Amino acid sequence: xxxxxxxxxxxxxxxxxxxxxxxxxxxxxxxxxxxxxxxxxxxxxxxxxxxxxxxxxxxxxxxxxxxxxxxxxxxxxxxxxxxxxxxxxxxxxxxxxxxxxxxxxxxxxxxxxxxxxx
Length: 118
What we know:
single chain; alpha/beta; Rossmann fold; 5-stranded mixed beta sheet; globular
């Protein structure tokens, strides 16, 4: 009788990343980077530019940890997709950059802005 147990696949552990990757979804990502300053310092974040559809796809695949989306330019379809992402992958952080035209954009976490989507 063979008492050896074999485990399929690779059994190595992965350590958490030393930084979080945030996708900035805007035609002018530099405009929103200033509003993301507190994310950079608190979470040791890295920001990359994506179009929103690609960012949502990357979030589903686990490539990015969060999204920063221009809330003033969000269509109902985009808000629906973000709502679906939030429901299916609640660990993904979603921030809407709200811009009133007078001051620099400010970030609003998705949980506080969920009423916008529906």
